[in-house]
Structure formats: C-alpha cells, structure tokens
Amino acid sequence: MSIKISETLTFECETGNYHTFCPISCVAWLYQKIEDSFFLVVGTKTCGYFLQNALGVMIFAEPRYAMAELEEGDISAQLNDYEELKRLCVQIKKDRNPSVIIWIGTCTTEIIKMDLEGMAPKLENEIEIPIVVARANGLDYAFTQGEDTVLAAMAHRCPEQKTEIEKKIDDKSIQELFSFLPLKTKEKSNKSFTFKNKFPLVLFGSLPSTVASQLSLELKRQSIHVSGWLPAQRYTDLPTLGDKVYVCGVNPFLSRTATTLMRRRKCKLIGAPFPIGPDGTRAWIEKICSVFNIETQGLEEREQQVWESLKNYLNLVRGKSVFFMGDNLLEISLARFLIRCGMIVYEIGIPYMDKRYQAAELTLLQETCKKMCIPMPRIVEKPDNYNQIQRMRELQPDLAITGMAHANPLEARGINTKWSVEFTFAQIHGFTNAKDVLELVTRPLRRNNNLENLGWTNLIKIQKR
Amino acid sequence: MKLAYWMYAGPAHIGTLRVASSFKNVHAIMHAPLGDDYFNVMRSMLERERDFTPVTASIVDRHVLARGSQEKVVDNITKKDKQEHPDLIVLTPTCTSSILQEDLQNFVNRASMSSDSDVILADVNHYRVNELQAADRTLEQVVRYYLEKAHRQGNLNLSLTEKPSANIIGIFTLGFHNQHDCRELKRLLQDLGIMINQIIPEGGFVENLHELPKAWFNLVPYREVGLMTALYLEKEFGMPYISTTPMGVVDIANCIRQIQKQVNIWSPILLGKKFDFEPYIDEQTRFISQAAWFSRSIDCQNLTGKKAVVFGDATHAASITKILACEMGIRVSCTGTYCKHDEEWFKEQVQNFCDEILITDDHTEVGDMIARIEPSAIFGTQMERHIGKRLDIPCGVISSPVHIQNFPLGYRPFLGYEGTNQIADLVYNSFTLGMEDHLLEIFGGHDTKEVITKSLSTDTDLTWNSESQLELNKIPGFVRGKIKRNTEKFARQNNITKITVEVMYAAKEDLSA
C-alpha cells in the first residue's frame, strides 16, 4: 500500500467498519448539563450495558437517567407501548419531578417502529411534563452526534422571540429575557457595558458552565452580548429564538441542530471555525464580530499571549506526527489546531463530514497547512479500522488519537496513543483551555519520554502460528 | 418495559463474544449497529489486553434496515477470513439484529463455502438468556461443532491418556479472577499427579477440541459456564465431570475426593495402582493453607457472630456463604444471587448456612435488604460496594460484575489452597479490625474535635465579588479549594485585591506559563 500525501484536501470514504461509542452516550454529559432534566433511554439490555460500562462510576451517583428496558412482550407488541411508557414516566415524575423528560430512541425503537414522536405530545398533556424525543441511535449516528439529535429536538421547544423587541439591546424589557444571567450580573453589566450587537446572539452546543461563561466573557470583551445558550443550565431557561436571532455553533458535530435552527426557527447561522485552540477561538470571535460589523479589540495580542504561554508544550509536539482514527467528529478542529502547533497530521479519520456546516473550519485547516508548510492530511470519512491499522503500521506516527478499543493494543506495539473520548469530556474550548488540549496530547509523549530508556516499547510476542 | 438503572448480567451477545474471543485464533463478527462493539473496549480496558480483540461488527445501518444485509455479512466474513485467517468465525446476532429476523444461518452457509475458516452462527436468544447463559450455550455449541466434525472426518480420538488427565472447562475472558484461578487449579492437579488435557475456552485452539475426550474427567470450576459442555461430553462420550467448586477448605477437600473417586475407576486397570489423596488434603489443610489455622486463631474470634450479607453470581455467593458460615463462624444474615435461572441449585446449597435467601436481579432490592439488615460487612459485586459506601458498611468484592481494580496484576486466586488464604485476608480486612473496633466503641470515635474551617489559609484582604463567588461555586467540590488558592496566589502576585471572573481565568492561564 502506498501512502500519498497530496496538496489539496482530499476526502475519502471507506467501509464504515470503525469503532465508536453509541450516540446514546450523550445522556452522560447532557443530564449533568441540563440540571432539571431526566433522560429515559428506550432500548434493550445492550444499550443499558453500554451506558453502565462506558460511563463507569457516574452510574452510582443516582443519575437522572434510566433505561426503559424493552422486553419480549414489547418487541412482539403484546404490550401497549403507550401504557408502558406512561407507567414509567409517572414513576419518574413521582420520584424525581423533572422539568422535562427526554426520550432517547434507540435502534430497537427504530426497527419496531415505535412511534415515540406520536406518543410524546399525548403523554405530555396527560402527565403535564414536557417530553422531548431524540432519536440517537446507532443505525444513523455516531457518538457525539447524539447530542446533535437532542439539541435539534430541543430547538423546537425554545420560546419564540417576540418581534417588537428589536429596538435596543440594553432595553430593560429585553434584559428580562436573558434570564440565564444572575440578576446582579445583569444590572451590573448593563451599567458598565454597552453591547454593540444589534441582534440577539444565541450559541448552541453543550459545554460545562465554566467554559460557557469563559466564551461569553471573550465575546463580552468585544462588546458582544450572548443572549442565550442552547442548552442552558436548566430546561426552563431555554433561549428565545426567532428570525432576528443569530446563532453560532461551538462544536463541529452539531449540523442537525444548525439546520433545525435555520430552517425551522428561521435563525441566521454564523458559519465559523470552532473555538478550539487559540487560533480557532480567534477565528470564531472574528467571524462573529464581522457579522455584527464590529471591529475586534486586542484579539491578535490575546492569541499571541496564549501561544506564548503554551511554549513548553509546543517544544514537545513540534515536528511530531499524529494519526486520527476518528470517532467523535472533533477531529478536523483538533487536527487544525495541532498543525498550527507544528505537528504533522497523516490522516484525519472522521465518522461523518458535513462540508457545509464545517466549511469555515475546513478553510481554516487548509490555510493553516499552507501557513505551516505542511502537506494536507487526508480526510477519511467512515474509516475502516483494520485498514487504518495497516496504514499506521507503515507510517509509524508519533501519536495515534484513537478509541479505547485500540489504545492498549497499539501501545503494546510501540505506538503512543491518546484516547479520543477524553477530548469530548475535557474542557477544550476558548483561549483559556488551549493548554488543556495540549496537556492531553502531550501526556503520552511526556509519559513515554520518562520510560524511553527502559527498552521495552514493544510488548507483544511474535505469533507462533 | 422495565425501568432499569443497572444490571448484574449483560446481554446475551456479550457472553458469546467472551467465549469466542477467549479461544485463540477465533474471530467473532457481530451483526450489529454502530457502537455495539463496546465489548472491545471492555476487554481492552478491563483485561488490559495487548492484542486487538478479535471482534468486528458487520454494521447494521439505515440501508440494511431498508434492503436487508444482502451481501454485506457474507462479504465481511470472507474479508475477515482473508485478513486474519482465523480457524473459526462466529457470527454473533445482537438484540437489534434478532428482531430484523434475517436468515443469518443462510449467510453462514454461503460464507462458509467461500472461506477457509469454519463459520458458525451463535445460537442464542437475546430476549430469553443473559450473558452467562449465552456463554455457557456458545461454549457447548463450539465444542459440539468440532467433535461432530471430527466424528464425520473419522479422526476422533477416544482412547484415554496414559496417565490420569483432566479438562478444565469454563475459564474465560473477563471472568472474575479467572486467570489466577486457572493457575491455581493447574497447580492443584499437578500436585495430585493429574495431567491437564485441555483448558477451554481460554487460550485453547478449536482445532484441538477433538482431543477433549482423551481426558479421564472434566472439571467445571464455575456453575455459570461450562456445565452444558460437561453434560454434552458426559452424554456423548461417557465422560464424568466434577462440578464442585474448589473454593474454601471444605469444598476443596470435597472436590479432591471426587477426583480421587474418578481416577480410581481407571487407574487400577491402566496403571495398576490406586490414588490416595487424603494425606495431601490433610497436609495442605493444616499446614500449607493458612485459612484453617486462621479461623482457629484468636483474631478470628472477634468475627464470631458478626452479621454479613453475601450477594453475587451463584458460584461465588454460594461458596463464600459456606466459607463464612462454617469455616469462620460468621453469621450470614442474607445471601443471594442474580442468577435467577439457577435458583433451585442455589437455594439447596445455602439453605442451612444463612437466615434468608434473596434471588433477584434488581439492585434496589439488594440495597433495601442491606439497609434493613445493617450487616457489619458485605460480600458482593461492585454494586454492593457502592451500596456499602453509601451506608458506610465495608464491602469485599467476591463476584462479577466488577471494575478494573478487580483485575489485579498480582496473584489473587479464589480457588484452591492459595485461594483460601486470599479469601481469609479479604474477609478479615473487610470487617473493622478487632481491637480498633473495641476502642472505637469504648471511646466513641477517633476524633471528636470538629473542624472549624476547611481552608488552610485564614481570611485575607482579598475579596471575591459576587460574580466570581458564583463562578467558584460552579467548580466541582474536589478542585474548588485548589482553584481558590491558585487564584488568590495569582491575585497577590499581581497586587489585585478584588477578584473577578476575569482574574480567575487569568490565573488559570497564568498557571501554564
């Protein structure tokens, strides 16, 4: 097999035999993000066992999620779906009293064609709790795309932006809408700041609340007011949407949500690179500012300053090569950042590539490659893990970013690995967290620097047969 | 429909995969949607496997849903055949694929014509059996397939080995301390002068399965996996089997006596002598294993009559109950298992050794039972360990399902004479240690002085504004103190007296420089 490294971005598509997490895993972080929610996964033992094993310890903290485990009677339609779900939801209401119940449809509900969307409104009326339906199944989606389906479903539940309030952003009545801010902050920010964005800006993508406020703060520095987040900390605080509202994504896997916001809620989408790494964050802010016709203030210095603080890490990664096996859709943004850090990327595996939603990110990737004089990596959609391992054997990358199924076997063969899932759970957005990304990326390199002299990098026996 | 947060035994296909991937050079192909291959993660992480788990998925996606798998499964099987040349490919249905009702057997038939590997379809019903039952079934299926094949080809070797020998059936991947148990069993049999004919499935080659009948008897250490195979071998080849789990001093002796009985059927004829293992049992019990002496020692007196609760799979829960009750004099208030399918056997085993018996796979029921009984110690799975944490009751883990810490690198068998030592340690360390317990009771606790403040530094000139205070409270508790200290340190260095959110983030960024 010969490996060509071309001058332009090349897209390939393989067999789709790759390892990733099931999209229902999104409940793991979403139930923590949306504090008053309850996630009910309607599926089988297989789904339950996955959540239990993949999410490890969290399960013991009395999580606000559960399985509605389908039994033989449900599959063969001997039991009435509606009555069964009602029974469980009433119990959930009694035990937890959530503000919203989110039904996660799985492969099984797809195959037996359980009409979750049809049942939800009826049951919603009956038990008086909103029920949101998201089909996060392994037939259609990979890993982080689960969040996409949930947010897309939730976008329908955001209240409508009233049309008369497009006068001035610092109008008192509008401020009431921005209820996600604590009351005091609202008053204070009102006094000391005049925001320059004429139209409300809503950001979408689930981030830990500290990261969300860091990003809001970065925009505040540019006099841009963030009027809401999808999702907010509480379901009851969902942002208002409408045709005057601008929306911008913070994560690369949210293409359905973006489409829903544009088509169904008539919002205006700002297509920007994603705020991962200082270069991405700057490009993200610049794009938002340019949409609102705002000149950026001190952004270049800010980026420079962050790069400066990363110096020690950059010395470690410069010239090293990376191979993304692909499983969480963050790959393009991470690769772009790592190239800017001076790394060489051989291959970007990715489950699904939305070239329209990621357009700005792809352009930035291309520019970055040119700027750093590094050949364009190949982008492999729906990769085949077996082929990838053969390619890796040939290329011998300094670092493979891969799922947990392959990490230990690759390490045993002397290839440094980093688990890709960690990037989904770590704080990687904005200027402040650029360090955390490199902390993750360099950890195997630093660890193995310490072990290098021991002489046992290869730890497998040659097979006898 | 059932509201479920947690389950003791996994879905059926996990059992099949565990058996398939325990054999050497056997590949399993799952007919499953994307993301169902988390078995690979479990094996790679928990067992810390160095090799790629020989399991791939033939992905069921929208297209498959619309048109059926068509050539896909067959293609994937033949491709894997070319790539890795396995001896056997096991096509594994999942819960999703079983409701699609595709004719997987037909795919298997077609694929086996074009590939060098043998191909079989795992025959398990997803909605009726769990992980353990499926593993048992699959192992029997594989063994039967190769013995029937050997029979057809006429290379079935039915003559017994010259010296007494045994097959060990049921050691497999992700099993609770299975690797260590296997080593201990080998040592035990070696001490008795019995050869190991084969160990299946762990590390075995399917091509060697036709030699299984050469052994004098089969040893099935665990109830859950291997019994079906042993029964099949008994029925077809008249091979006797021993299913007494050699766990605890009493049952090890029982097991060895049964072995003696079995080998003495043939040895007078084939070897011209009879085996007597009694001196060995006596020597091991009294002097090699420390457990018998330990339960006599005054240390163990403190455990007399203490209340314990046991829960786990049928094998471990039953054995541990018997050990606690008869070998250590501990009062077992309740014992239970999640192996509902083995209820009858379990009840019969533990009947006289405990106050009550609980058969359930609902962890909340187990939690309620523990809360009601308030034992001094729990012996259970990882779930019971967490229940124990919440109720402040110590717990020793004695059975699957388990976490990575229950795949220790050090030698920790539960079976055999070394196993008795390990169990004694586990039990003893789980109860609050004797004297400490007394002293706590007399003086009412270790440390009665209340902590006034949690921070090390006393209040300073620094003020946190309400916004930053709020932000600080959002940070998870276990790092909050550290962040607070770092921020204040940064503020002091930069002569900042009023801490805002901006200062917090600046401090975080500064930390890296």
From TrEMBL, chain A:
Q: Tell me the route in metabolism or biology where this protein functions.
A: Porphyrin-containing compound metabolism; chlorophyll biosynthesis (light-independent)
What is the main EC category here? oxidoreductase
Enzyme Commission number(s) of this protein:
1.3.7.7
Stated name of the protein: Light-independent protochlorophyllide reductase subunit N
Please provide an example of a Pfam family that matches this protein in its UniProt record. Answer: Oxidored_nitro
Q: Where does this protein have coiled-coil stretches?
A: none
Annotated Nitrogenase/oxidoreductase component domain residues: 22-442
Q: Name one GO biological process term.
A: photosynthesis, dark reaction
Question: What Gene3D superfamilies does the database record attribute to this sequence?
Answer: Nitrogenase molybdenum iron protein domain
Automatic annotation (TrEMBL), chain B:
Cofactor section: [4Fe-4S] cluster
- Tell me which Gene3D superfamilies the record gives: 1.20.89.20, Nitrogenase molybdenum iron protein domain (3.40.50.1980), Proto-chlorophyllide reductase 57 kD subunit B (1.10.8.550)
Annotated Light-independent protochlorophyllide reductase subunit B-like C-terminal domain residues: 464-508
Q: Where are the transmembrane segments?
A: none
Entry's Gene Ontology molecular function annotations: 4 iron, 4 sulfur cluster binding; ATP binding; metal ion binding; oxidoreductase activity, acting on iron-sulfur proteins as donors; oxidoreductase activity, acting on the CH-CH group of donors, iron-sulfur protein as acceptor
**Domain of life the protein comes from:** Eukaryota
Which reaction does this enzyme catalyse, per its entry?
chlorophyllide a + oxidized 2[4Fe-4S]-[ferredoxin] + 2 ADP + 2 phosphate = protochlorophyllide a + reduced 2[4Fe-4S]-[ferredoxin] + 2 ATP + 2 H2O
GO CC terms, sorted: chloroplast
Primary location class: plastid
What is the protein name stated in its UniProt record? Light-independent protochlorophyllide reductase subunit B
| Organism encoding this protein | Marchantia polymorpha subsp. ruderalis
